[in-house]
Amino acid sequence: MAQPPSRTLTRECIAAAALRVLEREGLAGLSMRKVAAEVGAQAASLYWHVRNKEEILDLLGDAIIADAEVPPRTGDWREQYLEYGRRYRALLLAKRDAAKVVAGRLSTGPRVLAVLEDQLDRLRSAGFTDADAAMASYLLSAYVQGFVLQEQSPLSAAEAAGAGRGRAARAAGDVFRALPAEDYPHLVALADDLVDPDMDTRFEFGLQRIADGLAALL
């Protein structure tokens, strides 16, 4: 039988421990047992505070947002929206496997709720309808999470083996350039653009296009 809950073991303590395990071992290495060991407890004692690993992931989602700084309320809605996206990307890139934790997960922790409330306030104040404001907030999160998931995934087997993204991208470009131009004229012509490893430029392009589309709603 599990021991009664410790007075020093809290959900906040569990979330902090899970963050340390995540940084050290990645999402694949995260388990109830390892989180318990991180706080010097038995795995069974965690069940007084969380029901399963999925609840730990919910706590992690909120803990990851703890370092978020909302953009200043300067400039128009577009600049604030863009800055939200840039800051969210930087936040996810700063923590190992953070995008894998938050992607598709609707956390209702206090930190996430505070950020979401701030976002929606700005969007509604800018003149977006309620439905459009909700969609714009969702779209930003989905874009950033999906982009960072790709950013933190190996480009190819070569990168997974340690070649580095730049080298792996050049190798992919060589493959495109070597294709028969009569069969793949566009792949050959755009080889350099298709495999450009400059992820900042790629991210900004997509972010700006999202803002362009939203501007048409006002």
TrEMBL record:
Start-end of DNA-binding region: 31-50
Keywords: DNA-binding, Repressor, Transcription, Transcription regulation
Keyword Glycoprotein recorded: no
Domain HTH tetR-type: residue ranges: 8-68
A GO biological-process term: negative regulation of DNA-templated transcription
Domain of life from the UniProt record: Bacteria
GO molecular function terms noted in the UniProt entry: DNA-binding transcription factor activity; transcription cis-regulatory region binding
Transcription among keywords: yes
InterPro entries per UniProt: DNA-bd_HTH_TetR-type_CS, Homeodomain-like_sf, HTH-type_TetR-like_transc_reg, HTH_TetR, Repressor_TetR_C, Tet_transcr_reg_TetR, Tet_transcr_reg_TetR-rel_C_sf
Pfam families in alphabetical order: TetR_C_1, TetR_N
Protein name (Swiss-Prot/TrEMBL): TetR family transcriptional regulator
Species per Swiss-Prot/TrEMBL record: Kitasatospora phosalacinea
Native organism taxonomy: Bacteria, Bacillati, Actinomycetota, Actinomycetes, Kitasatosporales
